[in-house]
Each structure stands twice: as structure tokens, then as C-alpha cells.
């Protein structure tokens, strides 16, 4: 199927675009560009993530049936439990907040966190 458009970026509303861009730059690598109301993060080998200042920003609730999370990001944290654990420790040290670390006795291949602005994201164990 021929695409109609190409993906350009994912944009996250937040109270402090520079701070959130720095969090994701430390988590994913890449180059932060801009300041103020709109900040871009160019991630090597991936799409651009942009951060837009949103006055009155309210973080999504997770998990709640009466208040949708709207969007979440999934990140490849490797193929082994050790790689997932290492990625988790680094994400937490950068300021991520755990939302659901229960891995169902090692059966579940993801764990859920919130970034410093409250957006949910998952670190996923990906089969090679």
C-alpha cells in the first residue's frame, strides 16, 4: 500500500519542554534543539520527538477507565531480563517514576513508567 504521508515527529505536551527533552535525550540519546515553547529531540535512527509547552498541563492518568492515558511510548530495552533491569535502573535514575513494575513473575515483557511530566512509557523486552 502506498503511504499518503510520512511520519515526522511525535509531540508531547508538557509544562517544561527543555527539561522533558533533556530527560528523553538521556534515556534515548540524540540532540536537543530549541528552547522555550517548543523543543525538538532528534533521536538517531528514529523519529523526532518534540515537546510543546502547555499552560495548565495535566498529566494523563494510568491506568484509569474514566480518564484515558491518550498515548504512550514503547522503548526496546533489550532481549533479556538483565537488559530490562539495567534499563529500568537507568530510567529511574534519570527521573522516571514507576507506574507498574509487576512483571507477573517474569512472564510479562514490559514495565510501565511515567516520565517527569507524567506521560506513560514502557520499557519492553523484545525477542531477538
Structural notes for this entry:
With 128 residues, the protein is an alpha/beta fold. It has two domains: 1-56, Immunoglobulin-like, CATH 2.60.40; 58-128, 2,3-Dihydroxybiphenyl 1,2-Dioxygenase, domain 1. Helix content is 20%, strand content 30%. It contains two helices and eight strands, in the order E-H-E-E-E-E-H-E-E-E. The chain has helices at residues 17-28, 81-94, and strands spanning 9-14, 31-33, 38-42, 48-53, 73-76, 97-100, 110-114, 120-124. The strands form two sheets. A four-stranded mixed sheet has the order 1-4-3-2, covered by helices on one side. Strands 5-8-7-6 form a four-stranded mixed sheet, with helices on one face. It is globular and about 45 Å long. The chain starts with 8 loop residues before the first strand and ends with a strand.
- What is the multimeric organization of the chains shown? single chain
The percent of residues in helical segments reads: 10-25%
State the low-pLDDT regions, or none. Answer: none
Strand neighbour order, sheet with most strands:
1-4-3-2
The Rg value, from CA coordinates, equals 15 Å
Secondary-structure element order, N to C: EHEEEEHEEE
Tally of separate helices: 2
Ordered list of secondary-structure elements with their pairings:
Layout: E1 9-14, H1 17-28, E2 31-33, E3 38-42, E4 48-53, E5 73-76, H2 81-94, E6 97-100, E7 110-114, E8 120-124
Parallel strand pairs: 1-4, 5-8
Antiparallel strand pairs: 2-3, 3-4, 6-7, 7-8
